[in-house]
Amino acid sequence: MSATGAVRTLKIDGRDCSARPQATILEVARENKIFIPRLCQLEGLSTVGACRLCLVEVKGSNKLLPACTTTVDEGMEITTSSEELASYRRMIVELLFTEGNHICSVCVSNGHCELQTMAQRLGVTHIHLPYRYPKKQVDASHERFVLDHNRCVLCTRCVRVCDEIEGAHTWDLMGRGIDSKVITDLNQPWGSSESCTSCGKCVQVCPTGALFEKGRSVAEMEKRRQFLPYLTLMRGERT
Amino acid sequence: MSRKRLATVWLDGCSGCHMSFLDMDERLIELAEKVELVFSPLVDAKEFPPDVDITLVEGAVSSEEDLHKIRLVRRRTKLLVSLGDCAVTANVPAMRNPFPVQAIYDRAYRENATLMQGTPHEVIPRLLPYARPVHEVVHVDVYLPGCPPSADVIHYALTELLEGREPELSARTRFGA
Predict the structure, then answer these.
(1) Staple partner for A179: which of A36, A175, A189, B133, CB 3.0–4.6 Å?
(2) Mapping DSSP to helix (H, G, I), strand (E, B) and coil, where does residue B128 land?
(3) Dihedral angle at the C-alpha atoms of B110, B115, B116, B117, nearest 10 degrees?
(4) Cβ contact B143–A123 (<8 Å)
(5) pTM above 0.90?
(6) How far is Cα A164 from Cα B52, in angstroms, rounded to an integer?
(7) B175 contacts in A (CB within 8 Å)?
(8) Which residue of A has its CA nearest to B92?
(9) Which residue of A has its CA nearest to B136?
(10) A39 CA to centre of own chain
(11) Residue A17's Cα: distance from chain center in Å?
(12) Does the CB of B90 have a partner CB in chain A at under 8 Å?
């Protein structure tokens, strides 16, 4: 292990890369224009490793590691794409489709959705697993925004942006396993939340149409994320 | 070269995929030289014929009639293509799936009916508990997602299949396209 502050050298897909200590595999891959799929990670927010799409193979490790939460080591040898990884990633995306009610053709985010784009990019042309068709609720009690649980992939970007950037922590997770869902305040209608500042950051970071602005019709909801790097930078300088 | 026998069927869908098929416009003439359309909502055949080379199926499997039809179609078809999101994912017809069938009948034939209230027991085929993608019921050979898939994509897929090649579709279309 080399000293803190030194540059780490490693190989990603056979390419020599250099990285800062504490950099994650995902960050280094991105700097080197190597694509690793992900749905929960978003630059400017903390990482949780929830979606498992960014799993990569690391030489010497007998398990797959999430690229977003694994920091680089000197001499690491990483493989970001293989037949095995591709089949796991397709399976993860397929599971997301079966666990919710994702009906792209009538969704506000059709054409701008990260789940939809990911399915296409990973070559998912149909879902092999049986759909569950769960009965999920829509919360339209907020004046400006809507939460549709049918389209939520539990990435927790909304939870993190609200806590880490806005500082309100209106969002959180409730329940376990298949019953998990995002909630506002103490699982009360969003419109009655006392902590929500109505800033809309949660809506903009949401990868799907689970959070959207009222008045948007099919395919009209495009998320705007430009604010995030600036706010992250400003918060960083305050601490 | 003998013409391939092509069929199209319409299950629980809006016919938008068939409209998109017609949107091939003048390419339909060129296609007609290569295929014989032996069964389709667009032609006047009453019974699905045997020995069909390619069948495009639009729509989800939602009713007892759909189930009967698709099983017959599968038996009589060499290459079955799921055409569009309803066939591939069950799409909009699946929006009823979180609700029990009886609740759907009640909403359609009692709560919102002003005349002859009550679930019909004749003519209208009974709904299955769920609207399902075609491949959950019978084997599907090719998946062509899109709502609807564009005429260009349908044309590309058919051209490839008629040439005996497997079309590469994931770059050309997607769910909701």
Answers:
(1) A175
(2) strand
(3) 10
(4) no
(5) yes
(6) 60
(7) 102, 104-105, 116, 119-120
(8) A103
(9) A130
(10) 3
(11) 25
(12) yes
Element (H, E) at A165: none
Query: Which amino acid makes up residue A5?
Result: G
Determine whether the interchain pair B175/A119 forms a contact, defined as Cβ–Cβ distance below 8 Å. Answer: yes
Q: How do residues A132-145 score in pLDDT, each as one tens digit? A: 999 999 999 999 99
Q: What share of chain A is helix, strand, coil (3-state, %, to 5)?
A: 30, 15, 55
Residue B102 lies in a domain: no
Instruction: Give the total number of structural domains in chain B.
Output: 1
Which of A105, A125, A131 has the CB atom closest to B147's CB atom?
A: A105
- Surface of A (129-148) touching B: CB under 8 A: 130-131, 133-136
The answer to whether B120 contacts chain A (CB < 8 Å) is no
Which residue range forms the structural domain that includes residue B59? 4-96+128-162
Question: What would the 3-class secondary structure string for B77-116 be?
Answer: EEEEEEECHHHHHCCHHHHHCCCCHHHHHHHHHHHCCCCC
Contact A119 B174 (CB under 8 A): yes
Q: Do A125 and B145 touch (CB under 8 A)?
A: yes
The verdict on B103 touching A (C-beta cutoff 8 Å) is no
Residue in A116, A121, A86 with CA at minimum distance from that of residue B85: A116
In chain B, residues with a C-beta closer than 8 Å to the C-beta of A103 are 89, 91-92, 94-95
β-sheet with B52-58: strand ranges across:
B35-39, B4-10, B52-58, B77-83, B142-144
Regarding an ipTM greater than 0.85, the answer is yes
pLDDT tens for each residue of B58-109: 999 999 999 999 999 999 999 999 999 999 999 999 999 999 999 999 999 9
Domains and CATH numbers, chain A: 8-81 (3.10.20.740), 96-238 (3.30.70.20)
